[in-house]
Amino acid sequence: MKQSFQRFGLLLLLSSGLLFTACKDETTTPTPEPTAAYGSGIFVVNEGPFQNGTGTITFINRSSGAVQQDVFQAANGRPLGNVAQSMASFGTVGMLVVNNAGKIEFVDLKDFKSTGVIENMALPSGIVVAGNTGKAYVTEWVSFSGNGRVAVIDIASKQVLRRIAVGEFPNAVAWHNNRIFVANSNQNTVVEIDPQADTILRTHTVGDRPNSMVSVGNSLFVLCSGTPSWAGTETAGALAEIVGNQVNIRNFTAATMHPGQLTLHPDGGSLLYQLPEGVYTLLPTASGSITPGTPVIARSFYHFSADPQGLLYGTDAKDFVSNGVILRYERNFTLRDSLPAGIAPGSIHYR
What we know:
The chain has helices spanning 2-6, 71-76; strands at residues 23-24, 27-28, 42-46, 56-60, 67-68, 84-90, 93-98, 103-108, 113-118, 124-129, 135-140, 147-154, 159-168, 170-176, 179-184, 189-194, 199-205, 210-216, 219-224, 238-243, 246-251, 260-264, 271-275, 278-282, 303-306, 312-316, 323-329, 335-343, 345-350. By secondary structure, it is mainly beta.
């Protein structure tokens, strides 16, 4: 729920079409399975108004660019809940994390109808699917002070298998080299979890306030914002690289630099991150302290990430009470277009 930290739909896609049966010499071609309406595309998680109203999901067709608003409400005849936080998918199963409502909604991606819910979650935030294990890992803040935890979810049964205690404000969670990594965003640590035993293997010390993670080969890059002046003694942001049990840290050159929104460029060769002045790029193979230089996109976003299959996406939440917009950029950082979104468009799930 970025609104807690920082201020912290539609009719179903009518794409069923007609199925035709071809006949020749009395041999019938098997009828193909219907294509899932939401099987491939971009899902924008609109957080919705903070403490009232509901979050929504905007769906963008990757090939046509067609936009459908509030697909959950349209499919289910009820609101998703407050505050929508993140999304993940496994096969035809979509999982929607709703923070204030304390739940995970499961939907069938053929039509986005709800297939079940896990309730009584304690301020859930991030979610990641653990490869082909059939499990998802959801970070729970638990409260606004003290340590959080990670809920291990069996996707098929929609049950919480167990919970793992971690550090303060666990937010970002990543799947890397067959391990789960959880960033404790109010500390300077990343917890590494073995998904077979669902136990903590080790805790990595990184920079202050880790906020986002990207897997590149054998390296997990962790972007740390550093401590802002309003939260105590100000510290500079840092980029930590975790390789096995080793951690290499590159600090930003000024204590006033507090980066966020780490993502991998679709070409796979460079990392992107954000500062208030805009979006910047750096090479994962570089060394030494980080000096941002000139932004490749001279504006900042509420959320910024890259579709591994194509474009760069930035969201503008505007005033957090009216509908926001989604700005799409080409790989060379030129603006392609602007699309409508719901209130407070936050995280984006690419499928």
